[in-house]
Amino acid sequence: MDKIQVKKVETKREMNDFVQLPEKLYAGCPYYIPDLEMDVRETFDPRKNAGLEFSDIQPFIAYNADGKVVGRIAGIINHRANEKWKTKNVRFGFIEFIDNPDVSAALLHAVEMWGKERGMEHIQGPMGIFDFDKEGMLVEDFDQLGSMITIYNYPYYPKHLEALGYEKEVDWVQIRIDVPQEVPAKYARVAQLSKEMFGLHVRKLTKEDLSQGYARKVFELLNQAYAPLFGYTELSNRQIDDYVKRYIPLMDLELVPIIENEAGELIGVAITMTSLSHALQKSKGRLFPFGWFHLVRALKWKRDEKAELFLIAIRPDYQGLGVNALVFDDLIPIYNAHHIRWAETGPQLENNVKELSQWKPLNPSFTKRRRCYTKRINGI
Predict the structure, then answer these.
(1) Model confidence, pTM
(2) Average pLDDT over residues 31-39
(3) I need a labelling partner for 278 at 20 to 30 A (CA). Which of 115, 167, 341, 362 fits?
(4) How far apart are CA 33 and CA 189, in angstroms?
(5) How far apart are CA 168 and CA 278, in angstroms?
(6) Which class for 200: exposed (0-12), middle (13-18), buried (19 or more C-beta within 10 A)?
(7) From the CB of residue 217, how many other CB atoms can be counted at a distance below 10 Å?
(8) Sorting pLDDT into bands at 50, 70 and 90, what band is 290?
(9) DSSP H or E stretch at residue 267
């Protein structure tokens, strides 16, 4: 057995090791998309991460006998989620390790014991603090390019977890579609009926709308639409402010259709953008000195031929009334105008039938299955 030392990250050097490990681990891997190092560091900073108001988080780093970094992991306890779902779960996230079972076992054991000390009974992951953080270990399709909102990992990762007794809790899948030249007849027909029968219409936000607080309405809608989904905890006001400040400026508002009813109430939204995967690879996870240029270029000047369909959210009382058809009726002509040839969704729960069925007219293919694992903590 290799001698592996797992330490709580407490020093600047250890945090640097934690942040920089993936760059070394995935060097030369054409499918891996790096996180921005700045974002990773801010995850653990209570001044920057509003989710730490109701969550505990502890990063760990693993070294071998020679002092080389061989793995990392973070333990997370989302107290709000545990209260909502009546659970005592410690989550693990940011997990990375070399192909050595002693390393993966030591990392996960560290989080299990950290959680046990705090009264937790089960461990689950990979998950983040919040549902919009990266979650789900990749278990299929390791030879496909990742995205800025998803985890990429090597094929040996799930094998290690299963050997340690971890079992499937839920799976997510992603949907890939080729953008059709014309809006499918079913979408066009349902979109027109939704306009006529329910007074629905598409609106595009302006910078003025955002300055007047409309972006907050979008995140409040997400809280309503996603409340019943696995592991979801509602965004706090401070979290909403952080998301608005961090992500809304990146959005091309033409690619973000807003659906309103005849009273002007927000009842649906789709958040999409052209892919930043290649730009992030070129940036190597750093904005400076030149990473910012690759990102701005991909956002403004040389767009990718792939669109990222991050999410579609519909107010519960309007679900099933054709809102999604209005979204596609709006986006497909815009995608064609921008020479976007294909699109991929974010991870969607495999048992969310309503969500998955909306893609049928676009002849979708299912790809990139990823998994949340769970295990009862030993000795409980």
Answers:
(1) 0.92
(2) 94
(3) 362
(4) 39
(5) 31
(6) buried
(7) 16
(8) low
(9) strand 266-274
